[in-house]
Amino acid sequence: MNISAIIQVLVEGLPSTIFILITSFLLSTLIGLFILWLTIQDDKIANRLVHIYTAFSRGTPPLLMLLLSYYELPKLLQLIGINANDWNKYIFAIFGLAFGFGGYMGEIFRSGYQSVDQSQFDAAYSVGMQKKQILREIIFPQMFHLSLPNIENMFLGFLKASSLVYVIGIDDMYRKATILANASQGVFQLQIFIVLAVMYWLITILFSYLFSHLHFGKYRV
């Protein structure tokens, strides 16, 4: 089995890998922003719920979160009258990864928010700005810029974690590699997984390059 044949098989799983990577990351970002919003409300109950979720999210392995999402989430939804048994596997994969990393994203945004000089609130209030306007136009843009390095690291962490979706039967690159290695009875296993590692490495380089442009844009602001 030559390298080109291996690449051809693994590339078939590339769209699934990229789709799950991007969608789960975006959903996790929304969860993280919601966590931040609850945090800045100065509500004891909300902060307690945030603490519980963050501890659960950060303390649960991604693989376990995927399995809970795929096998147990439909049972929970069934209790409220929602039949999720026929839902696409991608939904559970995306939700499992996003929910599992949402606590990390919330902490990233919280750290970025706290790094912004809070005296800017007083300055903005003095010129008649409202809190929502201050957050939208002054605080949040700075927060995102300060959080960008950690967001990049988290995104690349999503890339590695996305390889776990094979356990629920999604044909991503990792599952394609596993099937191919089993089909060859392990004879070409080393070559297959080296090619797979190189492909993940190239994806990492590509997205690191894109993030570097965001960093460059940050310093131009």
From TrEMBL:
CDD domains the record matches: TM_PBP2
InterPro entries assigned: AA_ABC_transptr_permease_3TM (IPR010065), ArtM/GltK/GlnP/TcyL/YhdX-like (IPR043429), MetI-like (IPR000515), MetI-like_sf (IPR035906)
MF-aspect GO terms: transmembrane transporter activity
Main localisation: membrane
Coiled coil: none
Superkingdom assignment: Bacteria
PROSITE patterns: ABC_TM1 (PS50928)
Keywords associated with the record: Amino-acid transport, Cell membrane, Membrane, Transmembrane, Transmembrane helix, Transport
A GO cellular component annotation in the UniProt record: ATP-binding cassette (ABC) transporter complex
One Pfam family of this chain: BPD_transp_1
Localisation per UniProt entry: Cell membrane
Spans through the membrane: 18-38, 50-70, 90-109, 153-170, 190-211
Entry-linked SUPFAM superfamilies: MetI-like (SSF161098)
GO BP terms, alphabetized: amino acid transport
Domain ABC transmembrane type-1: 14-211
Protein's membrane topology: Multi-pass membrane protein
Similarity comment: Belongs to the binding-protein-dependent transport system permease family.
PANTHER family named among the record's database cross-references: L-CYSTINE TRANSPORT SYSTEM PERMEASE PROTEIN TCYL, MEMBRANE COMPONENT OF AMINO ACID ABC TRANSPORTER
Stated name of the protein: ABC transporter, permease protein
Natural source organism: Fructobacillus ficulneus
Source lineage: Bacteria, Bacillati, Bacillota, Bacilli, Lactobacillales
